[in-house]
């Protein structure tokens, strides 16, 4: 998979060099390229923002550098005939990014992340991007960040680890929270007693059926108490 990132803070993405995703990049499974939006400006001051039409607080990102950046990235693709990229703009006003979104996007050939700052990006950029490929405005959650970078990083990690070969043991992907629709069961390792706290005896019993049943009950109990919204029997979806 090829992933391009457009940002005014390219160094935020240095962290992608390390850990699991760093290995995937080194082995060629993931081709991540980070671009500085200011490289697509044409004025002496490399201006990327301006005041909002209609008034209001803060600044808005100008459309011209974004247009130049998106055009350059679409042109820079040898195999572009059959598949257009998917453009992802992290936004607090976007659809919710979930494990299902990550799974879907992991099957795409090419993703382009556009990271906004200030009060956001001139709305016409999203309309223009629609002429170049599919456009998704995605929100990590119901809180506001200072820009799209941290959200893009979280999405790249969630998507990247689902690409075959990135996570060593594919079974470890299946048992995780949000894949089953339930939270994960609690995990324990040695020693069997630590600071007076025992590991639940069923886990030491060697009885696989009992272990599986206990773990499933734990998943249900935790999901009921911590995330009733996942079971659909709460009132969190009533606005
Ligand atoms: C962003 C900002 C709108 C005030 C570009 C925030 C995503 N889940 C998310 N939380 N926050 C974001 C996000 C993504 C991109 C941008 N801002 C700041 N946006 C109103 C402040 C600018």
Notes on the structure:
It is a single chain. The chain is an alpha/beta fold and 239 residues long. The protein is 29% helix and 18% strand. The chain has seven helices and nine strands. It has helices at 19-26, 63-75, 99-105, 124-130, 149-160, 171-174, 208-226, and strands spanning 2-7, 31-36, 49-50, 60-61, 86-96, 110-114, 134-139, 193-194, 197-198. A five-stranded parallel beta sheet has the order 2-1-6-5-7. Strand 5 (86-96), helix 3 and strand 6 form a beta-alpha-beta unit. Helix 2 runs parallel beside helix 4. The longest helix has 19 residues, at 208-226. The protein is elongated and about 70 Å long. It binds 5-[1-(pyridin-2-ylmethyl)indol-6-yl]-1~{H}-pyrazol-3-amine. 5-[1-(pyridin-2-ylmethyl)indol-6-yl]-1~{H}-pyrazol-3-amine binds next to strand 5.
Which properties best describe this structure?
7 helices, 5-stranded parallel β-sheet, binds 5-[1-(pyridin-2-ylmethyl)indol-6-yl]-1~{H}-pyrazol-3-amine, alpha/beta, 9 strands, 18% strand, 239 residues
């Amino acid at each position: 998979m090829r992933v391009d990132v457009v940002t005014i803070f390219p160094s935020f993405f240095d962290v992608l060099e390390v850990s699991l995703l760093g290995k995937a990049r080194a082995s060629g499974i993931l081709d991540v390229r980070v671009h500085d939006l200011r490289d697509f400006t044409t004025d002496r001051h490399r201006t990327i923002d301006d005041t909002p039409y209609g008034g209001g607080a803060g600044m808005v990102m100008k459309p011209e550098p974004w247009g130049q950046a998106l055009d350059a990235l679409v042109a820079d693709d040898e195999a572009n005939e059959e598949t257009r990229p998917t453009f992802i703009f992290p936004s607090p006003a976007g659809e919710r990014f979930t494990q299902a979104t990550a799974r879907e996007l992991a099957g795409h050939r090419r993703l382009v992340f556009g990271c906004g700052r200030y009060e956001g990006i001139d709305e016409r950029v999203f309309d223009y991007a629609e002429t170049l490929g599919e456009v998704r405005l995605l929100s990590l959650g119901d809180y506001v960040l200072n820009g799209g970078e941290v959200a893009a990083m979280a999405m790249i990690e969630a998507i990247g680890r689902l690409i075959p070969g990135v996570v060593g043991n594919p079974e470890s992907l299946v048992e995780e929270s949000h894949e089953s629709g339930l939270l994960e069961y609690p995990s324990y390792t040695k020693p069997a007693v630590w600071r007076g706290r025992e590991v639940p005896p069923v886990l030491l019993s060697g009885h696989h059926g009992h272990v599986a049943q206990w773990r499933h009950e734990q998943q249900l109990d935790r999901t009921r108490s911590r995330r009733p919204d996942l079971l659909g029997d709460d009132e969190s979806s009533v606005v």
